[in-house]
């Protein structure tokens, strides 16, 4: 059995050269679980689901077992630098920091790399010296006799692999006999044993029996490269709204990288929307001033045709409509950016 804490230390040693790698979510992340329960309980129902459950099960419903709980503690909000109006001022650097901190997709990529490193530690554990111990006991009673004997056999040793696929086992066995009728103890002696098995054909090569370890190490190296590739693509997703890089954990294969979309989204898309709103606001101001001048000229008799005034008013209404559409588009894109 592999101790989870020992395996975690070995994995961290393998991944110490990966810059900024930490598979556990930070305390300021929405994904952080303060309890860190290795065997979590099933999720609780919300209020509406609890009512439906109790109505279906009637008297057999478990009221206490369907208690509602918050999915997260909300402590991540304390790490945000809020303005007086309870908003967060975002620039490109801050947007990237928050995206890396709260992105479930990025967290999954880190966990995939962690699992890939676990595969390497498992192969190394399998090829290294492995201690073992076993014991068995039985009670025997000879036919026609009143006495009963308790015979206990214990075996302990170490097994492993070495050389060109050879397996070796070193063990020490003891035998202990106890007469249950009078309590006499008899030692059956100890036996030391060393067994070496060397295959001659199948698996008779160091390259063969190390193939699984070599493949797992190659997969780990490939997934580490893919994580860095994903980080770069994730930056493009934050900035432009699209990530051409594939996920980590594809078994070492590299998929084709699709070019980013020409449509600007992400952070730059929001900046573009804000600039569009500013342009439309300036346009509405100019159209409003132009309409006021034309109305004054018409009332003064310098313009004999009211058509120009009506056209200016129509242009103002169209400009106001475009301004409202730009604000609506910005709000929708901002909502999408929060949960991308």
Structural class from helices and strands? alpha+beta
Query: Segments where pLDDT lies below 50 for 5+ residues?
Result: none
Arithmetic mean pLDDT: 79
Note the run of SSEs as H and E.
Answer: HHHHEEEEHHHH
Quick one: biggest sheet? Answer: 4 strands, antiparallel
- Counted by DSSP, the helix tally is 8
Radius of gyration: 36 Å
Strand content: 15-25%
Distance between the termini: 40 Å
- Overall spatial form: elongated
- Helix percent band: 40-55%
| Strand line-up across the major sheet | 1-2-3-4
Report the count of strand segments: 4
Annotation keywords:
single chain, 340 residues, alpha+beta, four-stranded antiparallel beta sheet, 4 strands, 15% strand, elongated
Structural commentary:
The chain is an alpha+beta fold and 340 residues long. Among the domains are: 74 residues; 73 residues. A four-stranded antiparallel beta sheet has the order 1-2-3-4. A hairpin with a 5-residue loop joins strand 3 and strand 4. Helix 1 crosses helix 4, helix 6 packs parallel to helix 7 and helix 7 runs antiparallel to helix 8. The radius of gyration is 36 Å and the shape is elongated.
Strand and helix layout:
Blueprint: H1 4-14, H2 47-57, H3 92-102, H4 104-127, E1 130-140, E2 149-162, E3 166-179, E4 185-197, H5 206-209, H6 211-240, H7 266-299, H8 307-338
Antiparallel strand pairs: 1-2, 2-3, 3-4
Helix pairs in contact: 1-4, 4-6, 6-7, 7-8
